[in-house]
Amino acid sequence: MAVTSILVGVGVATALAPDAIIALSRKLVSPVGIYVAATVRCACGLALLLIARGSRAPAVLGIMGAALVLAGIVFPFLGVENSKARVEWEAEHLLFLRLEGLLFVWGGLVIYRLAKPPAAVIAPAPSNNSFERTREG
């Protein structure tokens, strides 16, 4: 639920208010900000890897989790200047940024749907007659 909430929240905010996201991104792009973002990505990826085994599609969630962990590991090596350049490029291409936000929402919904374990088969409740018989006998 936490991973889904993060992805859907960021996606909705990005799709609906890209200017606010750009302004926030400009403030947060720093060496510390990059490490925080990398940590969040790795944590989300590890969470997906942990829930993948008991999910409806373990391979899909495993791949998504591994991709997030890899992105979190690589992100600090790209550096502050690269991050600033990406933020400025996205500021010039708001349609792309909105589509990216919709992709985040879609990804969050896919994770939510796949992370649920398959529905268990529930045995029907005993009828009143069988209950009475077991109580008497």
How many beta strands in the DSSP annotation?
0
> What structural class results from the helix and strand content?
mainly alpha
Distance between the termini: 47 Å
* Biggest sheet statistics: none
Average pLDDT number = 86
Query: Can you give the helix content as a percent range?
Result: over 70%
Proportion of residues in extended strands: under 5%
Radius of gyration: 22 Å
Order of helices and strands: HHHHHH
- What's the shape? globular
Quickly count the helices.
6
Number of domains: 1
Parts with pLDDT < 50 across at least 5 consecutive residues: none
Task: Write a brief structural summary.
With 137 residues, this protein is mainly alpha-helical. The chain is globular. Helix content is 83%, strand content 0%.
Structure description:
The chain is globular and about 45 Å long. The model has no long low-confidence stretch (mean pLDDT 86). It contains 6 helices and no strands. The protein has one domain. Helix 1 runs antiparallel to helix 5 and helix 2 crosses helix 4. The protein has 137 residues and is mainly α. It is 83% helix and 0% strand.
Write the layout of secondary structure elements.
Blueprint (H helix, E strand, L loop, with lengths): L1 H15 L1 H11 L2 H22 L5 H35 L1 H22 L12 H9 L1
Helix pairs in contact: 1-2, 1-5, 2-4, 3-4, 4-5
List keywords for this structure.
137 residues; mainly alpha; globular
